[in-house]
Specification:
The complex is a heterodimer. Chain A is mainly β. Chain A contains 4 helices and 22 strands. Chain A has 2 domains: 191 residues, no CATH class; 128 residues, Immunoglobulin-like, CATH 2.60.40. In chain A, 38% of the residues are buried. Chain B folds into 2 domains: 96 residues, Rna Polymerase Sigma Factor, Chain: A (Orthogonal Bundle), CATH 1.10.1740; 70 residues, Arc Repressor Mutant, subunit A, CATH 1.10.10.10. Helices cover 66% and strands 3% of the residues of chain B. Chain B contains 8 helices and 3 strands; from the N terminus they run E-E-H-H-H-H-H-H-H-H-E. Classes of the chains: A mainly beta, B mainly alpha.
Amino acid sequence: MKDKQTEKILKNVKQKIAISNFEKEERLDMKNTRKSVFKIGIAACCVIVSMTGIVFAKDIGNFVKNLFGKNTSDGVDIAVNEGYVANVNTEYQKAEGIEISVESLIMDDFNFAMNFDVILSEGYHIDEFERVELSDLIITDETEKIVFNTRNPMTEIEGGYMGSYSMLSTKKSDNEFTISLSATANTEAFPKSKHLTVKFTKLTTSQYVNEQRQDTVYEGDWSFEVDVPAEFYNRESVIYKVKSCNAEGIDINQVTAVVSNTAFKLSIPEISTDKIDYTLLKEDTVGSIYKRIAIQKEYVETEDGKQFEIAARSDGDGGYTVPEEGDKIINYHQTFNLTKYDATDEITVHMFTNKGEEITIVLEKM
Amino acid sequence: MEKGKRIQKYIHNHEIELEKIIEEYSGYVYKIIRNMANSHLSDEDIEEIISDTFFILWKNREKLDEEKILSSYIAGIVKNLVREKTRVINIHADILDYENILQDGQKMDMIYEERERIYIIEKVLKNMKEEDRMIFHLYYYASMKIKDIADKLKVTEFNVKSRLYRMRKKIKKELEKGGYSHEG
């Protein structure tokens, strides 16, 4: 073959390699919708089955999405696809014809999620388990610290979990489903636990009959011991400091910015820049409610041009407070889908205000 | 091309010397395709199969057994690709070539789906400006930093970042149009 043709082939191959690298870097979760590849729910995504205990699921072929339910953020998905997930697969425990095991786990400073696999005996109708809660779930670690507990308005647990959470059920087959617990730490980071004890005695299902809610409680003594992988408890979040800010009225020394395996959290105790129209925030008059939102759009950008939106799911605990007095907002905090896997030495936060102005905060790794 | 060369001859500093392999084996691949498909494939199809062969080899570079003969691996890949293209079932081939096939059939499907996506992206790139294609290549193939790309092309870093951002968006949109969805 002539050299010119070889050159053309080489150019084509290089382009294919570039595209392959692009797909890998952008983590394209691209499934051909003309074909049905996966089974119901997410069972097929858990492709690494541990026979002996916890292993790291590093060899997931295609991008896995919502492994821990649709209420987890894109940041959690990114961490899972980077191999930061543990397949636990404890022994099943059975009570009232319901077998349960702890299937998988992810845990970092900002997110804690756990999947339970549930198998129903004959006689149960899986459709009755569409809304499920482990009503008295409590997870403690080796220091007896409570890592998570289901909140019950009637009984408060001292030292209990105060963050947000959700429990979702996803059908796998006619007699099997997954309960996905996803929790976000909010004010306090999840601890660096080495061992977890997972206990509950009530599995509650809810159904609506003639618009009335009816709960059914299944009781048993489900208890599991889970060793946490070293990569989880040896994790280190990355702290950033402000390099520059284009707005006055923000004390850069008070800004907190931390990137973990699953999210980026930003906190600013007080913002009094003139880039925000504070009058609109306090008006009760009828007008565009959109204008009453001080920060209308935010995203964070890495040095290589990637942009990450706010984590509008379970760890999207963003917000701020408008005090009665003063032209300012206080306690601004936001969570973004940027994780350690994409974070660069410098990252830039872009915030667009109700005055149409942009606040830009450049952060650098400490 | 010496047909009996082992793969280790093409590994340098733990990296596969893809350009050298393409130079030495393009003719060999072309010959296999012609022998199998005769005149049933267009020149364009043949070029595509040749490029895909070396791409698949590159994708599996970490799984190659350095003691094995490279031509046998390559032959196995080519034959599967030609089979896929022509849907010919009865192919007479040297058993050694089958023994050296890298992937089982199921895993080959995953590569085929990836190749389908690559074709869609290639079409998108074809319709882009030359400079945008250059930026894409420098960033995703040559792994250059944004600053270095900007210096090389004598544009601003912001310009490079914006173009990459726009390209990513456009490609994802075209993939969705092509039947690929983010939903699993």
